[in-house]
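Example 177, ligand PRP.
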Amino acid sequence: MMDDRFSRVLLDQAEIQERIRTLGEQITHEMRGLVPCVIPILDGGMIFASDLVRKISLPITLLPIKASSYGMESVSSGNLDLPWGVPPLVRDRDVLLVDDILDTGLTLTTLRSTLLEAGARSVRTCVLLRKQHANHLHSDYIGFDIPNEFVVGYGLDHAGRHRNLPEISCLEIEKKN
Ligand code: PRP
């Protein structure tokens, strides 16, 4: 942990909160008349989701799902682990999946199809960040498009650390040979 070095702050608290306010307004407008089932994708999505739902003026329910493909590594394993499974309560619900970052797309793509197979009526997605190399990947709501850097804070981790930082910073990662 002592070796982790931050190169710069990418998004400060005020920028993050202002964008979340406008995302919440947009979601409230576009999902009006629905009772959205908001699904924070744990662990990374929990901080973002907890702020976002307080900016959505609709009668939502919360149903977290735990999903992991990176483990303690900085590169995706290519397999999505769902240790808690998918709750049957999604049947006939209009789902809003909420995650911190869109990187390879594995997490959102897999969960979207899994939830539809489980009987969800509709599945929308909301990510706070989308990496530049993922700019061809769709999400219904995107907070910020960001460069291809390793970012931590505000839910994002490096080997499980830094999730509690209130801002999002770039980390200097030593490449393994
Ligand atoms: C991270 C992040 C997203 C996902 C994005 O989760 O929180 O859920 O990776 O990457 P992708 O687009 O390549 O799927 P991770 O698997 O590290 O688990 P965590 O949320 O517990 O950190």
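Summary: Residues 113 and 123 are 9 Å apart (CA to CA).
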